[in-house]
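Human: Not sure, check this?
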Amino acid sequence: MATKRDYYEVLGVGKNATQDEIKKAYRQLAKECHPDLHPNDKGAEDRFKELNEANEVLSDPEKRARYDQFGMDGPMGGFDPSGFGGFGGFSGMGGFESIFDQLFGGMGGGMRSRANAPRRGADLRYGLRISFEEAAFGVKKSFDFTREENCSTCKGSGAKPGTQVDTCSHCKGTGQVRTQSGFMVTMRTCPTCGGTGKTIKEKCANCQGSGRERNKRTANVDIPAGIDDGQMIIKAGQGEPGVNGGQNGDLQIVVTVTPHKLFKRDGRNLHLDMPISFTQAALGADIEVPTLKGKTKFRIPEGTQTGTRFRLKGEGIKQPNSYMTGDLYFTVNVEIPKRLSEKQKELLREFDGTLDGREFSDSRSFLDKVKDLFK
């Protein structure tokens, strides 16, 4: 006769494990090797029996105390390991289905009582495209969509008005049929009623017995200022209706923001590339910078280098549901003229001849480094 393993080892817990830890370990391991999930697997069946045997002892404080004191061979007060000590062919816990229900939340015998339980309706998703400005400042939008609703003729029953819906005689209204073959218990959807638990003799002509019809609806939505690309707005309860009195689903509106021709968004801040002329960069100038609200004047200091970044405070994007607003950062790019007349070229050569290098801090620094290198 094979020696049985220590019960604590079977469940993978220490001797000081709490009842909650024992329960958690048993449920997790039993799910992994449940015979219904491993049909015709003798090893899984034996492992499942071993786990139940260990749990039967360690989950009972009195049996656990005797086991801790005397071990496997001591007086167990009537506990019979070979017969699951009260499981007795799984009868001690309400049968095999009860064990399955405890582990899988009603997937065994309890599945019958859930067939006609209230079920939440399906969520609907709609993609809504808006402009960059609409996302920045907010906008009201309306759009049409189609959803399934309870049939207006039969009010969702599926039966011809004036007739009634009968309880399925095959499954007795449970929506499930149970078959048992030795150790295995199988629950299947009732083939007569399709799992509804009901049969309809005279079907509604409008919905053909489905209890549903598709209707076109209009949704009105307030897009908040500052919404970003890919964010979702949920209209609670505007999805498809629930079943058996369940809640309606939601309408999920996924917002797509069209990119702007000038601005790039980074959270609450905006970024802009701003071209300026060589003369504006050298002498300084008052320029007009575009913003989402219009143009604003900004003073560029003389000697501004290409790539210099400036900030316009408060000209960014408003944060949704907040008073905080981001900034606009614009980076100047000095444009070099490509097509010059001979007179313009001559003036530039004359201008260049008046420079001694002290006007260019970067080039002077570079020349100093070159001189140091070749000393």
